Amino acid sequence: MLSPAQTLLRLEDAGRYASGKWLVRGVDLTVDRGEIVTLIGPNGSGKSTTAKMACGIARPDEGRVIRDPALRIGYVPQKLSVDWTLPLTVSRLMRLTVSLSKADAEAALKEVGIAHLAGADVQTLSGGEFQRAMLARAIARKPDLLILDEPVQGVDFSGEIALYELISEIRGRLGCGILLISHDLHVVMAATDSVVCLNGHVCCKGSPKSVLESPEYRRLFGGRAAATLALYEHHHDHTHLPDGRVLHADGTVTAHCHPDDGHHHGPDATTGQKERGEGDA
Amino acid sequence: MLDDFFVRALVAGIGVALVAGPLGCFIVWRRIAYYGDTLAHSALLGIALALLLEVDITLAVFLMSAAISLILVVLQRRERLSSDALLGLLSHSALALGLVCLAFMTWVRVDLMGFLFGDILAVSKTDIAVIYGGGALILAVLAMIWRPLFAATVNRDLAAAEGLDPDRANLVFMLLMALVVAIAMKIVGVLLVTALLIIPAATARWFSRGPEQMALLAAAIGVAAVVAGLYASLEWNTPSGPSIVVAAFAFFLVGLSSLARNRYAGAVPPEPRE
Question: Which residues does UniProt call coiled coil (chain B) (predicted)?
Answer without folding.
Answer: none
